[in-house]
Amino acid sequence: MLLVDAHLDLSMNALEWNRDLRLPVSLINERERGLYDKPDRAKAVVSLPELRKGNIGLVVATQIARYVAPENHLPGWHSPEQAWAQTQGQLAWYKAMEEAGEMVQITDLSSLNKHLDLWNNSEIDRERKPIGYILSLEGADSIVSVEYLERAWNYGLRALGPAHYGPGRYANGTDSSGRMNKEGLSLLREMERLNIILDVTHLCDDAFWQALDHFNGAVWASHSNCRRLVNHNRQFSDEQIRALITRNAVIGVALDAWMMVPHWIRGESTPHSTHCNLEVIINHIDHICQIAGNTLHVGIGSDLDGAFGREQCPSDLETIADLQSLGGLLSKRGYSDADVERMLSGNWLGFLKRVWMGL
Fold first, then answer.
1. Strand bridging mode 197-199 / 219-220
2. Among 191, 272, 260, 182, which residue's Cα sits nearest to residue 227?
């Protein structure tokens, strides 16, 4: 079964982690043995061959670069222009992968349908199929001014989350609070004009509700879980989930262990000690389905290798290819084959087709 993953930081891994994602995960990890500059060294689970192995033929792939003011102690760039330059380097990596035949950018209905035809063609070896990617920007800090957004649309940007962690130039994100500023509201208007999808993942609660009030375009949440199951502002409350369902959004569940199980302590907890396995993410999927009364508003947005690796993944996930096992787990919970297909790919594909057909 074809899978769609709505959130992968591929270019960040390639440039900031210095990973050649054309290689098998085993070789990436072997080269990182003995490195300790990042906590997830030698624990990667994502590469392009593993995506193909898992039949994950379409992903939402990010650019990401945060601006940090002098009083902001989060990692990031000291000017918006530096952040913009970082995202342009990330874009260059995606374009290099396209030239190498490893990836192909999906920007409209025609390119989506062409890519799906390719991946559904059983006569072509899976190893020869490029990974389709929809370009998303995680945090808008690198958009130097709202006028830059059209430049980004022209090179293929099709989704944008205005905030990431902490205070941002356009909106405040995880672990912060406050409404969007004047520039943030201008950004929303320009996104609506360009038909760029609003990703409400990471918006603080104040900005979340304000964005829904001011934005009339397409909305999704690429990688978020349920606050009812893990009580943190990074997650969505039941009220927020209901609001997203009303907007015909899709919510991608994330496989970062601290978002899956309660009481995770960074540097101490392990997937085994917290009983964090793939069954746990089905709880989050099921919670969204119970609120919706159907299976139409949930998908996968794994965020795997999003600055964490196997030390913070479900214990029974060796590589991203193991996402294929979610189908069997969903079936065991009583979901039909049609339900499973919707949640693993159909909901995301239907969403994109509606957006790009102007429905």
1. parallel
2. 260
Tell how strand 131-138 and strand 157-161 pair up: parallel
Homologous superfamily of the 3-357 domain (CATH): Metal-dependent hydrolases (3.20.20.140)
- Per-residue pLDDT 10s for the chain (359 aa) are 899 999 999 999 999 999 999 999 999 999 999 999 998 999 999 999 999 999 999 999 999 999 999 999 999 999 999 999 999 999 999 999 999 999 999 999 999 999 999 999 988 998 999 999 999 999 999 999 999 999 999 999 999 999 999 999 999 999 999 999 999 999 999 999 999 999 999 999 999 999 999 999 999 999 999 999 999 999 999 999 999 999 999 999 999 999 999 999 988 999 999 999 999 999 999 999 999 999 999 999 999 999 999 999 999 999 999 999 999 999 999 999 999 999 999 999 999 999 999 76
| 220/352 Cα distance (integer angstroms) | 10
* Burial (Cβ within 10 Å: 0-12, 13-18, ≥19) of residue 133: buried
Q: Are 149 and 196 in contact (CB under 8 A)?
A: yes
Q: Give domain limits for the chain.
A: 3-357
Nearest to 151 by CA among 109, 199, 90, 88: 88
- Please tell me the distance from the alpha carbon of residue 86 to that of residue 99, in angstroms, as a whole number: 20
In angstroms, rounded to a whole number, what is the distance separating the alpha carbons of residues 87 and 21? 18
Residue listed under structure tokens 């709880």: 283
HSE-up of residue 297 (Cα within 13 Å, Cβ side): 25
Give this prediction's pTM.
0.97
**243/357 Cα distance (integer angstroms):** 23
